[in-house]
Model the fold of this input.
Amino acid sequence: MKLLAIQLGYQKTIAKLLVMIAAKGVLIYSARPFG
Amino acid sequence: MIEITAIPALQDNYIWVIHDNSHAAVVDPGESEPVLAFLRTRNLQLDAILCTHRHGDHIGGIAALREVYNVPVYGRRHTKNPHITNDLYEGAQVKLAALDIEFDIIEVPGHLDDHIAFITPGFVFCGDVLFGGGCGRNFEGTPAQLHHSLQRLAHLPDSMRVYCAHEYTAANLRFALACEPGNQALQQRIAATQQLRAANQPTLPSTIALEKATNPFLRCTLPEIIHTLQHRGLTDTSELGVFTALREWKNHF
Done:
């Protein structure tokens, strides 16, 4: 469970990072980064 | 007779083509190849490129299109969008003579500072500001600016068709239902959207009336939405407070 929680935490962090990157126009990779 | 055709592009973009039997204008071409293929198949002459904002998924195909068709590019000039030949601001007009269409330009900041919308009687190209059942992320500017931009669009005629730039409707409506589970118009729209997507059909264009009936970002004064947010800890129940809380919730939904 602890491992799963850590993994989910990482996934959320990565998703947020991708949205931030998309906002800067460098990379567009997320489920729906613009909406 | 004018037609507006959706060309799916990239992951979930729509490039809208406004055309008759011989001429065409294209809105937010994030890619060139599908547009060129469409123009060739229909034997259409490209007359203009319209650009709502400078994100790469809206301008990525412009350079290649202009290598084939040396046409004007209407939009807001910016260092990150060097393709623009005709710089547009609030109150400007764009006349596409061959298609007999004239657009009024309004500025709709909040997704990006320099986002614009193209409006002509009957339809609006709103880029990434208003989506089917949702709205654009607030990358630049303030929530108040985005809210104001959405309100300007909401005050267009109910029958006006809304041409958004992404197929986000199904996901947006899942969020809308979490906000407003008792909204029957929303439930009907979800069913219709599921049918369209199952048939691989676009859920767009929408209409201003449908958005006002189902889009939580245009319904920030509705008691059910306010109550939902209050259960999530909202204290500022002003319209802008509700809008800001909705946008923040949707960012992580």
In short: Chain A has a mean pLDDT of 57. Chain A touches chain B through nine residues (CB under 8 Å).
